[in-house]
Amino acid sequence: MNNVFVYCEIDGTTVEEVSFELLTKGRKLANQLGVQLEAIAAGSGITGKVEKDILSYGVDKLHVFDAPGLFPYTSKPHTSILVNLFKEEKPQICLMGATVIGRDLGPRVSSSLTSGLTADCTALEIGDYDDKKTGKHYENLLYQIRPAFGGNIVATIVNPDHRPQMATVRSGVMKAEKVAEYYNGEIVYEDVAKYVPETDYVVKVIERHVEKAKNNLKGAPIIVAGGYGVGSKEGFDLLRKLAEELHGEVGASRAAVDAGFCEHDLQIGQTGVTVRPKVYIACGISGAIQHVAGMKESGIVISINTDPEAPINQIADYVITGAVEEVVPKMIKYYKENSK
Amino acid sequence: MSLKIVVLAKQVPDTRNVGKDAMTPEGTVNRAALPAIFNPEDLNALEQALRLKEQNPGSTVSILTMGPPRATEVIREGLYRGADGGYLLTDRAFAGADTLATSYALAQAIKKIGMPDIVIGGRQAIDGDTAQVGPQVAQKLGLNQVTYVTSVSEVKDGEVTLTRHIDGGVEVVKAPLPILLTVTGGAAPCRPRNAKLVMKYKRASAPMERPAGELPYAEEYEKKPYLTVTQWGVADVDGDLRQCGLAGSPTKVKAVQNIVFKAKESKRLTAADADVEGLVKELLESHTIG
Predict the structure, then answer these.
(1) Could you tell me if residue B249 is left (phi over 0), alpha (psi between -120 and 50 degrees) or otherwise beta?
(2) By percentage, how much of chain B surpasses pLDDT 70?
(3) Which of B102, B170, B259 to mutate to test the interface with A (most CBs of A within 10 A)?
(4) In this predicted structure, what is the pLDDT of residue A151?
(5) pLDDT at A265
(6) Are the C-beta atoms of B190 and B77 separated by less than 8 Å?
(7) How far apart are alpha carbons A125 and A128 in whole angstroms?
(8) Is B126 on the interface with A (CB under 8 A)?
């Protein structure tokens, strides 16, 4: 009762990294609240393959649901698992990844339980809340913090009266840290038929193609990122050259992606990838909070922008006031000259 | 088979092109400074609906939107592109709704319209980016759902076949009707307005949009009932006030802040060769790069 729950996302028999990140955060929240951390793993043929990994993040109790129809993911069976389990367990907090699966499942579960859900949180904290209208005081609520309105503001959302307090968090936003290689948590193998009616298995996945990510933005030590100021696809080719020289990766802001300068999977920010490279070179990026949310933990930030007042300059270690197409070739030239 | 299709559409402030005056000095959003547009992914959803209508003769496409009277604009835009009709859900009691209260209102309206074969909307709206309303409407109506759809291939024997985006790939999925679908921006763009339909529907409006006094073109409205967009309030859709608007929203906004970055001491440089070379050398010497 009243514990913190994390829904673990499983591809085949592999637990997704985002779930470990959430378990790490969930462990901290549970410690702060003095409650237990519980996890849910649902899939097909996962028994014996996922338990140790999940427990190692400090899970006190793991609920395993293993049945043929639970992979690939479809909405209804997984919803039934969470809804029926939560009716018994009454968690106070439920976290899931802001992935395609989490964003499909979370709202369906929240609607079923009439509980509040906040999407794409960038921070989660525990704190008190005073309802000005009713004068009621609430202790130890989950602060769900997220950029809103296209990333121009940051909102702190609370769910005072409804449980569980649900939030989704994007992959890479939180850091995964194991508690112990062999953590002594309880494992419960649940009777799936008790939770999922046969009529839930109606959507059939007839084909599935998953490719390894084409880029390695998340783990890249150096990122050359372009914004609207890069101006064109050709401009991005220039960034690619610099990234290649520096053994880095190319990223982009939403404005550049929307303008069609580069592919969608390069997007860094709240609705894209979150990165923490050693060096982040922001080329023609103004720095909407939406974007900054995804790169603010970078080591050294270099901003190249014609606008000396670009918001990103405030968090930059080096500001080069100038045009991308002028500065980037010079960087390539002087890097080549000096690195050998 | 002929299909009854309802498109969920939202009028949103264009948050993609936010200028300096988009925020008030108090840190709240200055909605007046942002143009109101048809939510982009809802247009992708409309296109899929119109294609299904073409493939399945006898089908109808209706637009359902919730918002102030001026949100009727998205219904008109739908009519200009081939939709058959629209419903405006408008009432002060709907104001301040979070995604759950919004989905309740939309679900009530869909029940009132009569259960469709397909409910289809954009994956998410650009003013919230939550992607929650679609699945929540599906749950409230007890419908199956498939989200992140990039194309609907066909409807046959009461089943729909479609392609959807998943993390790192694609899935082809088959599901029985009735169903709710959400469509991503990766789907085909919406067709442009049709000039004939613009002529036909340019005076289409909801009663609340019309002037209080004498109605211009009153005769035309009388002769052409399709120019009057159906407008519903809470009572019309048998709405429970406790589940609508602010009262029906479990999430509360505790605080909103205009984000202030922790300003760093930045080194200011120019594009001059000496500056750029100096920087590259400095980074190389500290083994930051190279």
Answers:
(1) beta
(2) 92
(3) B259
(4) 67
(5) 86
(6) no
(7) 10
(8) yes
Band of residue A289 on the pLDDT scale cut at 50, 70, 90: confident
What local confidence, expressed as pLDDT, does residue B55 receive?
96
* Average pLDDT of the residues in B232-243: 97
Q: What is the ipTM of this complex?
A: 0.89
- Mean confidence (pLDDT) of chain B: 92
Q: B150 to chain A nearest CA, in Å?
A: 13
To the nearest 5 percent, what fractions of chain A are helix, strand and coil?
A: 30, 30, 40
Q: Please give the Cα distance from A274 to A171 (Å, whole number).
A: 7
| Strand positions, DSSP E, chain A | 4-8, 10-11, 14-15, 37-43, 61-66, 93-97, 117-121, 123-130, 137-148, 153-158, 165-169, 186-189, 204-210, 222-226, 249-252, 279-283, 300-305, 318-321
DSSP letters for A162-196: SSSEEEEE-TTSSPP--S-SS---EEEE--HHHHS
In chain B, where the domains are located? 4-254
- The pLDDT tens digits of the residues spanning A133-169 come to 889 999 999 999 998 776 667 899 999 999 999 999 9
Judged by CB atoms closer than 8 Å, whether chains meet at A147 and B258 is answered as no
Q: Which residues pair with A273 in a beta bridge?
A: A268
Write out the two tokens for B271.
Answer: 């594009």
* Other residues' Cβ atoms within 10 Å of the Cβ of residue B234: 20
- Most A-contacting residue of B136, B174, B281 (CB-CB within 10 A), to test interface: B136
**Length of chain A counted residue by residue:** 340
The dihedral sign for the CA sequence A17, A20, A22, A28:
negative
Q: CA-CA distance, A17 to A14, in Å (whole number)?
A: 9
Is residue B19 very low, low, confident or very high in pLDDT (cuts 50, 70, 90)? low
pLDDT tens per residue, range B76-109:
999 999 999 999 999 999 998 999 999 999 999 9
CATH topology of domain B4-254: Rossmann fold (3.40.50)
The single-letter DSSP state of residue A260 is: T
Find the closest chain B residue to A128 by CA distance: B254
Tokens read off for B26: 């108090």
Chain A partners within 8 Å of B135 (Cβ): 75, 104-108, 111
What the block records as the tokens of B119 is 């409910």
Mean pLDDT confidence for B106-113: 98
CB-based contact A177:A24 (threshold 8 Å): yes
pTM score:
0.86
Instruction: Report how far residue B45's alpha carbon sits from residue B150's, in angstroms, rounded to the nearest whole number.
Output: 9
Read off the tokens for A213. Answer: 């990510």
C-alpha A89: how far from chain center = 26
Q: Is A297 exposed, middle or buried (0-12, 13-18, 19+ CB in 10 A)?
A: middle
Residue type, A15: V
Check A150 against B99: CB less than 8 A apart.
Answer: no
